Amino acid sequence: MPVVVFFSFMGDEVNRLMASYAPPGFEVILRPHATPPEEKARLLEGADFLIPFPAEVPAEALRRARRLRLIQLLSAGYDRLDLDLCRRLGIPVADNGGANAWAVAEHAIALLLALYKRLLDADRFVREGKWRGDILGYDTYEVAGKTVGIIGLGRIGAKVAARYHAFEVARILYYDLLPRPDLEVEVRAQRVDLDTLLRESDIVTIHCPLTRHTRGLIGRRELGLMKPTAVLINTARGAIVDEAALIEALRERRIAGAGLDVFAQEPVSPTNPLLRLPNVVLTPHTAGTAYEGWARRARFAFANIQRVWEGQPPLSLVRPEEE
Q: Which listed residue (285, 307, 322, 323) is catalytic?
């Protein structure tokens, strides 16, 4: 009987839902993500498959996982997993196959709309009996006619592009280390270099993984290329952006605003200056979570595991050129 070890930080209801998608005849050993490292290593000694959520596994546990055929992630990101060690050990790693792409794309646009329409201020004014407060009509904006720059045109970035077309944007630019010719045609996006994207975009939205290529990709120089009316949306990983440089740019109004779901440190420190800036909308790394997405993640994960058990290659492998 194939054994799947599932380490999860989610609640019991979600964990039970996920485990219910296991194929008949598969044993699922469900343990909390906070399980001690030695216990994790012991469990992995007898495991054929591993689902870690979040994607973080002690090195010694991986070394002792000699039967492991696949590490199946439930996330799109893989930056917390030691991919070099996995490669040396011959353990393939697959991401979630885009299962959370719908949720992230919607959340990214929600952050933009919250900034453009000053939704948090408007809600507060109504609740406090101030009606419109200082929303005067010339300090809220339309998405129509804007240029959108997407950093990372993968599964999530493509869904973001498709949704922005419904807002009648003027054009969509994208920057990606890898050309995406099929997606370019599908979502009507133009590939440009990063500097061009930053200079010409009214909305810059980040949807690339955190890798050695993208860590610190947006720093002081890059923020300086953006229009003073531009906004930055980040639902990918906090470390892609130099947070100190972003705070400086926001404080000095060198860019108009930011919508952030991810941060350099999570949870965010109560002393983080971002919490005191009026031109920022913040959410607690929840872009990828939605009710519908859990079943989608589980279906993909266990279908991929079953493929490997039956001798087929896994889908959605993390590719070396993306690391």
A: 285
Note the pLDDT tens digit of each residue in 86-133. Answer: 999 999 999 999 999 999 999 999 999 999 999 999 999 999 999 999
**Cα distance between residue 29 and residue 107, in whole Å:** 32
**165 flagged as catalytic:** no
| Annotated catalytic residue 207 | no
Residues 107, 118, 237, 297: which is the catalytic one? Answer: 237
Instruction: Kindly give, in sequence order, each residue whose CB lies less than 8 Å from that of residue 62, ignoring residues fewer than 6 positions away.
Output: 44, 68, 82, 85, 86, 89, 91
Set 27, 60, 266, 292: catalytic member: 266
**H-helix or E-strand spanning residue 71:** strand 70-72
User: Which amino acid does the sequence have at 304?
Assistant: N
How would residue 137 be classed by pLDDT, with cut points 50, 70 and 90? confident
pTM of the model: 0.93
φ/ψ bin of 129: left (φ > 0), alpha (ψ from -120 to 50), beta (otherwise): left
296 labelled catalytic: no
